Amino acid sequence: MTTPEPSPLAPPGPPVAAPAASLGAGPAAPPVADPAAPLGAGSPSPPGAAPTVPPGAAPTAAPVAGQPVPPGATPPGTGAAGAFSPERARAEVPALHRTVNGHPLVWLDNGATTHKPHQMIEALSTYYSAANSNIHRGAHTMAREATEAYESGRAAVADFLGAASPEEIVFVRGTTEATNLVAHTWGRDHLGPGDDILVPVLEHHSDLVPWQQLAAERGARVVPVPLTPEGTIDQGAYADLLSYRTQLVVLSHASNVLGTIPPVREMTALAHRYDAAVLVDGAQAVAHLPVDVQELDADFYAFSGHKIFGPTGIGALYAKSALLAEMRPWQGGGNMIESVEFGRTAFASAPHRFEAGTGHIAGVIGLHAALDWLSGFGREAVAAYETALTAYAQDALQAVPGLELLGPATRKVGALTFTLAGHTPEEAARWLDDGGIAVRAGHHCAQPALRHYGLDSAVRASLALYNTREDVDRLTESLLRLCEAGGGGSGGGA
User: Which residue range or ranges hold the Aminotransferase class V domain (predicted)?
Assistant: First the structure.
């Protein structure tokens, strides 16, 4: 009798329990690192070099994708006592140790995409080098291994979001595809002439454009919900706009342009009084604060893997099981059927009926590794640290003459969007890039939100758990030098 070899994609042990959900970013937390502590990751390494480990910290061994942490070993992302530290997070993210234009990289474009821990990178490599196979229906060992890893990833996402079951998770390319899936399935069956879709002015284009397209086709209306001067959703106006014509409310758990965290649970409860469904865009929230979709009572919740330290081209849509059961398939093909005849086709049950063709198998495995990495730090600890760092950054930027920070909401993730008198956003971003500081300039796919402030463009610096006060100080100092240089200066690192 042959003893089977262990799978290189062995499913993990018991998943990390999701912490209690919070709609804010500052829950009570276990001990966390002081944002004022000096960066301990040493000098930046050249591109491709192994990440530097902070002095006194034990190197974290990279587990093979999906394998449980050996007994007695320290889970990735945790210290001896399980406390979060940004230095450890930095040490495990190789891209943060490169230089740009002769300066150590300061990555402040996390709202667009996050950098990846080596555990996630190695998970992808392990899949492609040792276990590459298509999933489902394969009779051979590697197909079984890949299928188990893929479905283990689905269970990990369900646990991460607090879903009742893995069957409530559909894999998609990202938040945009998730929104389009809901529009083309649930939306086509529930929206008709005279129906309203409420979308706050704060929203990303992907939360607006698919519904504009569907509303034009079905005779429905997209109704904007206005903002307050502080950049929050006007709750009085929202309550007034809701009616029994409202079939859907679409809102972000955190704004990509202002960082604002709306009261999602309360807004959802109010929408449900009118029998309206609620779709929550969690793309900017899941990396920064704990999420429990059952506590939120969201009907749909979507996020993108690349904004939570995972691969591009993968994301997830959560939907309540009763909704998924009634939703028609979106795309047709393999992997989403039970049987096919020329006269009829019987579709698979949810979630598989929404995953036509060969999915992003490696992406799911990489996403699983990224979620394990983030969860290992303790979600409340990360949220508390980022809240403190965001407050520090808001205070520090006030020292820059002519800088106007948009959306001074008290409840927000670390999106710092601003204008600088005498300089276009593009000029400011180029200056910062000269000094190795990566920010984003433009309309941030949220033009209605910027027009609320009379703007077409702005600079956005966005924070993540591996950023430090040192990063914020370099941003502030570079902007101060730009102000001193006036309109003719160049070289943000000068």
Answer: 106-475
pLDDT band per the 50, 70, 90 thresholds, residue 41 = very low
Q: Which 3 state secondary structure label does DSSP give 81?
A: coil
Tell me the residue type at 490: S
Helices (H), 289-378: 293-296, 321-326, 361-375
The sheet carrying 440-442 orders its strands as 403-405, 415-420, 458-462, 440-442
CA dihedral 85, 416, 278, 283 (to 10 degrees): -50
Q: How far apart are CA 389 and CA 99, in angstroms?
A: 23
- How big is the chain by its Cα radius of gyration, in Å? 23
CA–CA separation, 278 and 281 (whole Å):
10
Amino acid at 202: L
Residue 18, helix vs strand vs coil: coil
71 preceded by cis ω (within 30°)? no
Half-sphere exposure of 176 (CA within 13 A, CB side): 10
Eight-class DSSP state of 354: G
pLDDT of 111 over the 90 cut: yes
Q: What is the DSSP letter of 112?
A: T
Closest by alpha carbon to 222, among 248, 198, 253?
198
Taking residues 204-218, what's their average pLDDT?
A: 86
Tokens of 317: 């849509």
What local confidence, expressed as pLDDT, does residue 205 receive?
Answer: 67
3 state SS of 123: helix
**Is 193's pLDDT higher than 80?**
yes
Residue 61: band (very low, low, confident or very high) from pLDDT cuts 50, 70, 90: very low
Which among 323, 321, 317, 319 has a CA at the least distance from the CA of 303? 317
Asked whether residue 70 carries a pLDDT value surpassing 90, the answer given is: no
Catalytic residues: 445
Give phi and psi for 78, each to the nearest 5: -120, 150
DSSP strands (E only) in 203-327: 221-225, 246-252, 277-281, 300-304, 315-319
Burial of 337 (0-12, 13-18, 19+ CB in 10 A): middle
Give the C-alpha separation, 260 to 272, whole Å: 22
| Degrees, nearest 5: CA angle 291-294-298 | 85
- CA distance linking residue 494 with residue 44, whole number of Å: 19
Q: Give the confidence band of 454 by pLDDT, cuts at 50, 70, 90.
A: confident
